[in-house]
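Phosphoheptose isomerase, pasting as requested.
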Amino acid sequence: MKSDRAAVTAEFTRRYQEHLAVFERSQGLLAPTAALAEAAISVLEAGGKLLFCGNGGSAADAQHIATECTIRFETTRKGLPAIALTTDSSALTAASNDLGYEQVFARQVEALGRPGDMLVGLTTSGTSANVTAALVAARAGGLATACLTGRDGGEIAAGRLADHCLVVPSQITAHIQEVHIFLGHLLCAAIDDAFTDRE
Ligand SMILES: O=C(CO)[C@@H](O)[C@H](O)[C@H](O)[C@H](O)COP(=O)(O)O
Ligand SMILES: [Zn+2]
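Structure tokens follow.
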């Protein structure tokens, strides 16, 4: 099949414009993200840790952001405690097999989360049952909670299941994810700022 480069470029241009429009509409999330960053920094300063979870592309985002806390974002600073609950195939398969997929993150929150930690759930729809269950488990365990979501925020926003709920104003999963990783990078920048010694 011969590809029509002009048509493909036109489609890319349409998607690019849509991406810009979603970012433009997301400006209102900057102040709430600053509030989330402040809360996350307080958790880390008090010796707590950050837990991240999500499905599919959001699982990748959870790992991406957690690694920028533990290893490095932009500056040279000490490693900070953060865990993505999406990476341990033994835990994920055993929890799915024995408890049900809904429990894969909640069980790890129960086992690893401590009062004073923070759970950050990522779900573009706000309706992923395993992220919802993790937020409920986190609250029950005395963790602070945050959710990066989209569309109408689903039951997580409606039920106020997270202390910080950032709802990206888009219906399109990919665009919501694009804003999520930007907000994750803002969080990492604020963490770098708080933990980097400057002369
Ligand atoms: O990355 C994408 C689509 O861009 C997909 O892998 C997507 O993350 C998956 O369909 C997820 O299962 C969607 O879950 P959620 O964002 O609604 O919680
Ligand atoms: Zn990054």
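Note for the archive: DSSP finds eight helices and five strands in the chain.
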